[in-house]
Amino acid sequence: MAKFHALLFAIIGLLAGLFIASLGPLFSAASKITGQSFPFTGLGVLAIIILPIVYGIMGFVGGAIAAVIYNLIARWIGGIEVELEQ
């Protein structure tokens, strides 16, 4: 469960990093036009590297916690039951 969540969240982090990286040039151009400075405009490439790692770690921890909670509750109420028919 933890490994699955880590991979899932790392993929989401990569998508978020790509989105943030695509906004960097837009904010950079806007700062030149308006004369205002926007913070973190040059951190787009760094976001592609950092966000998947951070999201993956958070996904692993969250998945592990969810699995522990599920296992505790499943002991009391019996867990999930699946019935299959042919």
- Poorly predicted spans: none
What's the tally of helices? 2
Determine the oligomeric state from the structure.
single chain
- Helix fraction by DSSP (H/I, runs of at least 4): over 70%
Query: How many domain regions?
Result: 1
Question: How far apart, in Å, are the first and last alpha carbons?
Answer: 29 Å
Instruction: Tell me what portion of residues adopts beta-strand conformation.
Output: under 5%
Number of strands: 0
Q: Quick one: biggest sheet?
A: none
- Judging from the principal axes of the Cα atoms, what is the shape? elongated
- Average pLDDT: 89
Radius of gyration: 20 Å
N-to-C SSE series?
HH
Class inferred from helices and paired strands: mainly alpha
Describe the structure concisely.
The chain has 86 residues and is mainly alpha-helical. 78% of the residues lie in helices and 0% in strands.
